[in-house]
Design a protein that fits this description.
It holds the Pfam family DUF4442. By secondary structure, this protein is α+β, with helices and mostly antiparallel strands. The chain is built from six helices and six strands; from the N terminus they run αααββααββαββ. It has a single domain (2-156), classed as Hotdog Thioesterase (Thiol Ester Dehydrase, Chain A), CATH 3.10.129. A hairpin with a 5-residue loop joins strand 1 (27-32) and strand 2 (38-43).
Length: 157
């Protein structure tokens, strides 16, 4: 079933939007490209997603970026062929997030080529991706750097 999700972006989007950790946090996968190269995620403005300063809770901002680069890589590289995990992440809060927030994720062909090349011999790869979270006016709210672990499954090395 998991492999099937990475062949059908629309089904993938629907399943992700029902996944309890995202659904109950007000995080919604708004769009995903047919080739899994890009996605857009929104964080809804809800009373339970606000912090004491009446801006979006920082943990929610961090959560809205959590699974997406790994999942996009699965869609591009193949769930059956690769092991992909989050290794580390860093968030830089730039300005208060008021209202609905948006994060856009993009994978470039050069990044995918580099990952394939670095893992072809069975080695581990630790690509870094940066995602920017913006408010509805386009103001930068946070910059998140995510480092992933990517390696071919043993049977493909």
């Amino acid at each position: 079933m998991k492999a099937f999700l990475f062949r059908n972006p629309n089904l993938f989007r629907r399943v992700m939007n029902l996944w309890p950790p995202l659904f109950f946090s007000g995080i919604k996968l708004v769009s995903i490209s047919p080739d899994f190269r890009s996605a857009r995620v929104d964080l809804k403005w809800r009373p339970w997603t606000k912090n004491i300063n009446a801006s979006q809770y920082g943990g929610s901002l961090f959560s809205m970026t959590d699974p997406y680069y790994a999942l996009l890589l699965f869609g591009c590289l193949g769930y059956e062929r690769y092991i992909i995990w989050d290794k580390s992440a860093d968030i830089d809060f730039i300005s208060p997030g008021i209202g609905r927030l948006t994060a856009e994720f993009h994978l470039e062909e050069a990044q995918l080529h580099q990952i394939r090349e670095m893992t072809a011999g069975g080695d581990k790869c630790f690509p870094e991706f940066v995602v920017y979270i913006r408010d509805q006016q386009g103001t930068l709210v946070a910059k998140v750097t995510r480092r992933l672990y990517v390696r071919l499954h043993a049977q493909h090395r």
